[in-house]
Design goal:
Number of domains: 1
Structural class: alpha/beta
CATH topology: Metallo-beta-lactamase, Chain A
Number of helices: 9
Order of helices and strands: EEEHEHHEHEEEEEHEHHHEHEE
Largest sheet: 7 strands, mixed
Distance between the termini: 5 Å
Bound molecules: zinc ion
Length: about 260
């Protein structure tokens, strides 16, 4: 079994705890260390229980809590070699393991496979976490679904998936055209429509839980993202439980078996 709790997620901050077989890891530290510790405590965990922290990329909304979080103890950090150069200054006492897409790493009972995503960052990564034959996909901050991703994520029982923006809201947001182009471009973020398309390609009856994440507070709403995905899941007649991660509150443990 794998279980996970999204401590927070939106364009403004992201952190998730994932547990399997008694091993606990974090993905991203993009909220304050105080909030991370509070979220972990609500999960019945202490930061000393965390065996490793996996990073998707270096943007502020994914790393900002690291400096304070790493002050008290040396953390085991897992990220691309390029990203480590940025993180080392925030966490000089950390122990780094460099990740390569497709190269599997073992952290306690969790087997972790990093893969490439398409984002305007240095070697950004998505992940598949596996424990006892149960797999959880983690896909965020990617402008497109890249070649190989559907195959890698086919058959996952749990999926954390970015559903960043509603195209109409983005286009009418009054933002500069360059920024709109950046967000909706190849190196930007997944829209509600793209997230639904991806589920149409990999959705299957064994997909127990789907979490929509990284919702933009300005160019999307949890209601819009959830409604679009609900329609997609219903059309596919999938029994998948749908959740929406929020910035202001923690999404309680979700168990995938
Ligand atoms: Zn982000
Ligand atoms: Zn980003």
């Amino acid at each position: 079994m794998i279980r996970f709790s999204v401590l927070a997620s939106s364009s403004r901050g992201n952190a998730t705890v994932i547990s399997g077989g008694g091993t606990h890891v974090l993905v991203d530290t993009g909220i304050s260390a105080l909030r991370i510790r509070k979220g972990l405590a609500e999960c019945g965990l202490h930061d000393s229980d965390i065996s490793g922290v996996f990073f998707t990329h270096e943007h502020h909304d994914h790393v900002c809590g690291l400096g304070v979080l790493s002050k008290k103890r040396a953390l085991n950090l897992y990220c691309s070699r390029y990203l480590a150069r940025d993180l080392r200054s925030m966490a000089p006492n950390a122990l780094f393991t460099y990740l390569e897409p497709g190269q599997v790493v073992q952290v306690g009972a969790l087997t972790v496979t990093p893969f490439c995503v398409s984002h305007d960052a240095a070697d950004p990564l998505g992940y598949v976490f596996e424990c006892g034959g149960v797999r959880l996909g983690y896909v965020t901050d990617t402008g497109i679904i890249m070649r190989g991703m559907p195959e890698l994520l086919a058959g996952v029982q749990g999926l954390y998936l970015e559903s960043n923006y509603d195209l109409d809201m983005l286009e009418n947001s009054g933002r500069p055209p360059e920024l709109i182009g950046r967000i909706s471009g190849r190196w930007g973020h997944l829209s509600n429509t793209q997230a639904c398309e991806f589920i149409r390609s990999i959705g299957h009856p064994g997909l127990q839980h789907l979490v929509l994440a990284h919702i933009s507070p300005e160019c999307n709403t949890p209601a819009k993202a959830t409604a679009a995905m609900r329609t997609t899941l219903d059309a596919l007649q999938l029994p998948t439980r749908l959740h929406c991660a929020q910035m202001a509150s923690r999404l309680d443990w979700i168990e995938v078996q």
